Amino acid sequence: MSGPRVARIAGVLMVAAALAGGCKRNKIEVVASDKDLTGDYGRHALRAAVQKFRATPRSSEAYRALAVEVERLRPSFNQDVADEAERNLVFLALGPLEEQLERPLEEQMRALALTVWPTALHVEPKPGEDVRRYLERACAGPLAAECKYIVPEYWPLMLSHSVWRRLKDRSRVAYSACRPCAQEPSYAALLEQFDQHLSALDRRAHAEEGQAARDAWPEAGENAREWSGAPTIDLVPDPPLLAGQPIESDWRVQVRNLRKSLPPPGDVLGVHLKPRAEVRQLRDVLRAAAAAGYREVALQARRREYPYQLVEYRLAARGAMGRPVDARDPDNIQFLVRGLDAAAERTGAKTLRLSAR
Fold first, then answer.
1. To bridge 308 with a disulfide, which of 153, 157, 238, 302 should be the other Cys (CB 3.0-4.6 Å)?
2. Rounded distance, CA 226 to CA 263, Å?
3. What is the pLDDT at residue 19?
4. What span, in angstroms and rounded, lies between the C-alpha atoms of 46 and 83?
């Protein structure tokens, strides 16, 4: 959406507000007159706040300032002004949301989580709270049904999807509650934008929900090591991901190519396998890693407790280094992880080695 078009959203809302204000119909005020200190149920102050936002209609910080001002004024609103405020909040969110739309999801989250998302998610940030703490609190409480069992790396996608879905639903309710808005055709375009962006996020969230769930990782024991951040071959999605990028060709060849591009030492390759995957798949990764020149493979696992910290178990890719751990090819990865954890506790070894089949 172009800058001028974004700026016109607020103008459209002003026109609709004027039309709505001009309707002669009986209505019941939702606040007592003696509590209204503005003389017009906060309408003038609301429109002044919207006018101020129009100066930077794609700014997430400006949107947050508008949302905070709306909440400050809310006790003085009657139903008409409350409806006008809601139309502004939902439709003016398009500008800041679309400003971030082409950026990586992690960047979107950092820009929007404490500015635009609170209005959609109905969870207010606490003073001094950073993005991570805000989302941990929200997912553990009010948003538990949506993200409590999603690993933190996928919060940007799943919560962004939730924000767009909630705002789309609210935009349609706000539009239907405003009869004069039907006279302004620009509303149809705004509603269509919500639909288009949400459809794209629907597809992506559906495609990635399998690997976003907590149970897509084996459960770690007490002796797992902190995740090292090694470049990782992720064999859970289809196609697999290598260093976060989908690979359509033989992943073994790509693992070798990645190793050649890494700066020294570059000796560790991460791997993500589902708990029910067989140990034979891990052996395949170990062989490919050894052929590519890696010394160790870091098998990913998750802590049991929320927010499911990512951890690892180190396995020797080649040679006789590392303490041996019994493992059969048909065993699943979760069973192996229990054995790795027990071996790490018993021997204190930082690197382990799978025994022969």
1. 302
2. 22
3. 43
4. 11
Q: What dihedral do alpha carbons 332, 333, 339, 340 form, nearest 10°?
A: 160
Six token digits for residue 93: 């969110």
Identify any residues that bridge with 226 across adjacent strands, giving them in sequence order: 311
Query: If pLDDT is split at 50, 70 and 90, which confidence band does 25 have?
Result: very low
Burial of 175 (0-12, 13-18, 19+ CB in 10 A): buried
Buried b or exposed e, range 188-211, using 16+ CB within 10 angstroms:
eebeebbeebbeebeeebeebeeb
Q: Which residues, 6+ apart, have CB-to-CB distance to 252 below 8 Å?
A: 284, 288, 291
Q: Burial of 98 by CB count in 10 Å (0-12 exposed, 13-18 middle, 19+ buried)?
A: middle
d(CA 87, CA 102): 25
| Buried-exposed string 23-43: b where 16+ CB fall within 10 A, e elsewhere | eeeeeeeebeeeebeeeebbb
- Residue 212, beta-bridge partner list: none
* Chain position carrying tokens 């409590």: 148
What are the pLDDT digits (tens) for 235-256? 999 899 999 899 988 999 999 9
Question: How far apart are alpha carbons 302 and 304 in whole angstroms?
Answer: 6
In this predicted model, what pLDDT tens digit does every residue of 35-85 receive, in sequence order?
545 568 999 999 999 999 999 999 999 999 999 999 999 999 999 999 999
Q: Are strands 351-354 and 323-325 parallel, antiparallel or unpaired?
A: parallel
Query: What was the pLDDT predicted at 18?
Result: 47
- Sign of the Cα torsion 239, 161, 190, 94 reads negative
- CA distance linking residue 120 with residue 194, whole number of Å: 13
Distance CA 237, CA 210 (A): 8
Domain boundaries of the chain, sorted by first residue = 3-210, 217-354
Nearest to 94 by CA among 178, 205, 20, 10: 10
Q: What is the CA radius of gyration of the chain?
A: 26
As given in the structure block, the two tokens for residue 250 are 């033989």
